[in-house]
Task: structure prediction
Amino acid sequence: MLVTMNDVLYPAKKGHYAVGLFNAVNMELARGIIEAAEQTGSPVIMGTAEVLFPFGPLEEVSYLLIPMAKRASVPVVIHLDHGLNRETCIKALELGFSSIMYDCSTDPYEVNVEKVREMAEIAHSYGASIEGELGHVGNNEGSAEGSDPSAFLTDPAMAKDFVEKTGVDALAISVGNAHGAYKFPPKLDFERIRTIAGMVNVPLVLHGGSGLSDSDFKQAIFDGISKVNIFTDINVAAVRGARERFTDEGKGITDLIEAQVEAVKLETIKKMELFDSIGKGK
Result:
């Protein structure tokens, strides 16, 4: 069933578990994610991000993901992750996405507040939920955070002010996490997560989940994270599955599709087990 983030994240916040966001830019990724959710009875957030449009254009992806969500036996949110432009966010809402993220985290604070506040009103008018970001979660490779990570961390007092002024339904925070594959083990600021969780009344989001250790996930969720974003791990799993199946030139693309779907499903289930969302969608 197609639902909003509020339908799955507030129960997660109350129950001290997390729901995963898994990006899907094609049928193989989407099938693996949905099959994992239905097999385990887990709620799930599935979507795409603006930086992924070259691999799966927004409109084409919407035709795939939204009907799959509506047919699913578990709650499924269709989410635009890291919408960077106002027009992109509105287009996603018009296409039927049940949730968006408007990422203005690189703008000055007051600009971030005003742009996200306006988009929150628009999203809510569509009956959709919205996520904002405060602090900046960059990329591992070539990220500016490498020079001084503390300069990009989310300030707890500003987080409270941001949520109150914008009306967002969820808040992505920067606590030492980054997008992509980690070259070195990240050092998450768990105390910062606890502090922010105690000051804001909306679910908190951890981006850059691929590559974190099991203990990092468990501690972050225990301290107040309700949504974890994953893409790299399932993206790599799909390639690994195809490579393992491609044993000779006699294999067809249908053999590889089956292998990719299964690999994505198994990797997604691993994450759902870590997040303790198994059975929470029944």
About this structure: DSSP finds ten helices and nine strands in the chain. The chain has one domain: 2-275. The radius of gyration is 18 Å.
